[in-house]
């Protein structure tokens, strides 16, 4: 018997997130073993008159490929997949791997080569900029373990989050996007954090289920050389299968001049990937009312209620501050009282304190209003 929640999610992905139109080509990429959602998506694309193409990826096979990859092989792989991506109008990416650490023992130089020669041209430059796309995780026992819940409880949480009324959330985000469009100076304070920068004339973009599921953020980017001060992130994060904790950055005129964590050497190796990796490409405020705690899955963690993320690396085209990099690493700071609290100021006006919006025009984004 089909789970109606899966069919509803598939319908939302196809009809709302990427809004498939008759004749459009849709690439569905599944990393993992899940099949029910793929089959439901194929049905929904068919109903819309689209053409669906499926890529099935196994992380253990991908690991073997990466460990044995040559530069020539990586360039050919990218050329093949880039040509396919150029023929797509829509992309739905589903991540359902059993082990988030599958790539943790791939040599760092191989992962850097993959990020720069494959991921950057195929995804950052083509898929992100030239398709209607949405990326999501799919619930399994591995994700439940990361969230410290039973598998059944996590599935219930997952579908509550992913089948939220994102059209309602979209309208509520207008006030924050409009305010960010009018803002020059931003200041972020909290334990180990006192950071200031400008977002003047960069713009702001709403995220309400068209790019990510789950969703719930509005993002911009700092003027590239305007960032000064220190930020101490309090959510653990995975990068290329490695867990980083207690990341702390100090900025001078836009550049990360000091970076520490539980693995300071590896952290700095990543930041040395290219010049843009030590500058920030995104500043975003998260407010999904159902997501409260980090689970080392950025598609969930960056939407945590009362959070923000401040991202080293590539800027998005929609809010382009000119920063270019082969990385885009969303790092999360939670400002609710149970995580130490904190404040956000726009042009010297307090707009959020301890994770709760405190000015009337933004109260529509507080948890009690979005559920």
UniProtKB/TrEMBL annotation:
GO terms for biological process: proteolysis. It comes from the Bacteria. The keyword Secreted does not apply. GO terms for molecular function: aminopeptidase activity; metal ion binding; metallopeptidase activity. The keyword NAD does not apply. Pfam families: Peptidase_M29 (PF02073). Keywords: Aminopeptidase, Hydrolase, Metal-binding, Metalloprotease, Protease. Gene3D superfamilies: Thermophilic metalloprotease (M29). InterPro entries: M29_Exopeptidase, M29_N-terminal, Peptidase_M29. Its cofactor is Mg(2+); Zn(2+); Co(2+). Belongs to the peptidase M29 family. This is Aminopeptidase.
